[in-house]
Amino acid sequence: MPERFYITTAIHYVNDEPHIGHAFETVAADVLARYNRLFGRETFFLTGTDEHGQKLQDTAVAKGIPPKEYCDQIVTRFLDVWQKLNISYDNFIRTTEKRHIEVVRHILQKLFDAGEIYKSSYEGWYCKYEERFWTEKDLVEGNCPDCNRPVTKISEENYFFKMSQYQQWLVDYINQNPEFIKPEFRKNEVLGYLRQPLSDLCISRPKSRLSWGIELPFDKDYVCYVWFDALLNYITGPGYLSDPDAFKKWWPSVTHLIGKDIITTHAVYWPCMLKAAGIPVPKTIFAHGFWLMEDAKMSKSRGNVVKPLDIVAIRGGDAFRYFVIREMTMGQDASYSEDAFIQRYNSDLANDFGNLVSRLSKMIAGYTDGRLPEPATYNDEDVKIKLGAQELLPQVIDLVDSFKLNVALEQILQSIRALNRYVENNRPWDLHKQGNTERLNTVLYTASEGLRIAARLLFPVIPEKIEEFADIFNAPIDALTSNEAAEWGWMKPGTEVKPGVTLFPRIDKKEIKKVAEEKAKSEPEGIIELDDFKKLKLKVAEIFEAVKVEGADKLLKLQIDLGSEKRQIIAGIAEYYKPEELVGKKIVVLTNLKPAKIRGVESNGMLLAASKKNQLTLVTVDDDIPNGSSIG
Ligand code: MSP
Q1: Domain span at residue 417?
Q2: Is 273 a member of any domain?
Q3: Which helix (H) or strand (E) holds 513?
Q4: Which of 184, 287, 308, 474 is most buried, taking the most CB atoms under 10 A from its CB?
Q5: Is the CB of 269 under 6 A from ligand 1?
Q6: Per-residue pLDDT reduced to its tens digit, 264-296
Q7: CB atoms within 10 A of CB 541
Q8: Whole-prediction pTM value?
Q9: Pairing between β-strand 284-288 and β-strand 538-548 as defined by DSSP bridges
Q10: Residue among 7, 16, 17, 261 whose CB has most ligand 1 atoms within 8 A, to mutate
């Protein structure tokens, strides 16, 4: 029976455009899928979008369009980026599809009938943003421990899944199955989490609070909790209800590739849900690290900076794919910077690989009849190249199977660097001048065949460019990626070679800057996303003291009461207000502005005022709203 490989990404929320994190995860899953296909394994690759829940409903409401319509709009942006990045998914799932809704309702009913779900009243602290309840002791300074946003006390009836009863089973399962949670340190993190008593999982939301979700089959007043809904996509995709044979074929040989932030839902909730439903648990959950942006350079607010996906516009999807896979040690965090991108692209792709392709093809065209020559007897150096190329495939298989994609790439690049050295040492240009045709032919053949074997192994990472490479050596891509083509000697002497194609033109900083400037010009000025606005912490504050700042005609020093704290702010309003007029006014203050010194005096926040020419009026609120109330 052929080996099987089923890989998934997390399904992405559609309340924002795809960013480097989403793109990395999807590219990494694609690279794993493509390698497995190359290794001759039957492969199924599932990705998709998570379209229910509070955040989505809020975003759609703020934009004034029905949630489904909003999802339809954003999903096309994901699909567009995946196409540009050459993502070869076998199936794309949206949680608003009928096939998925049926699966969710089926599983809910099954668990309800089996007594795994019960109704109970519940009082707890709810974080609207994270869409989950917390207990009093979970809170950090009264806020959500995950996102630090304010929480609301909610008391209501809900449905609960009896997750707590699976705690010991899960701990034993994790301990007995070292392949289940990867990397190892994440496994230990999950086991650490499971040292605390596991609660039952609240799996419903009353429609009165949230209507955008899948209705519970046993109570029409509730919708399903978004995570309970979303996780089930992994069984909908391969056909849990629609095609049981296909489902049996792919499940449970599945690897879930996810980010480190969603390990608990995947490694705790998900196996318990499956266990309760009588479905085997996944083979592996691999949690990758995060892409961090290099300080303000990558911030949206600057607008004139090339974002990672803009790189696609400069050098195509392959350049982006190569960079993110080479630069991230799967499991660790990685940092994006334009310099690192340029450096990596120019050294590995333009110099080491691209140059060798172009030099070799030119030499074949110039020193032979334009066809791959017949090698004569191999000397020790040639044999070394041949052995190196033959060892590469098993090495890459090992590295890919252990998720060390960056090391696999480095290994392949090392073999390409060895080929460059081989060409330098053997100097085909001198052999040509000397008329040493036998040696010249052997060197050209050995270098070309070594390069072809390495290029074949780069196909999963840079598929478009390897297709161009295949064309130079006159091999259709399907042939180049077939099993037979793994062997040394597959490329036959006499093959016509197209000379001089530049696969990877070098990039310089000026070019990137130009693209950034053009992009900034084409974007409507000043448009921000809802999430940008949400970053502003605007609060009601009462002025209880106001004095002039010595030596500064325009400035007043204000002491303000924000309910839970008092602060000092400096405001340029002395021309418009006398200090005594201000005391007792309730104003609006931006509280999370970085503190600054104005004329040597500390200012911690900024008040809001309306101004036009010589007029200025403070933005004020009604007296009965308490100090510290949030605005937004
Ligand atoms: N919808 C849920 C997943 C449900 S899976 C049943 C979700 N969506 S998400 O859009 O917020 O994130 C999707 C994936 O992108 C997650 O695996 C997340 O970890 C990953 N990333 C989000 N930001 C990231 C980075 N900055 N870097 C790398 N991956 C990151 O969570």
Answers
A1: 337-486
A2: no
A3: helix 509-522
A4: 287
A5: no
A6: 999 999 999 999 999 999 999 999 999 887 643
A7: 28
A8: 0.82
A9: unpaired
A10: 261
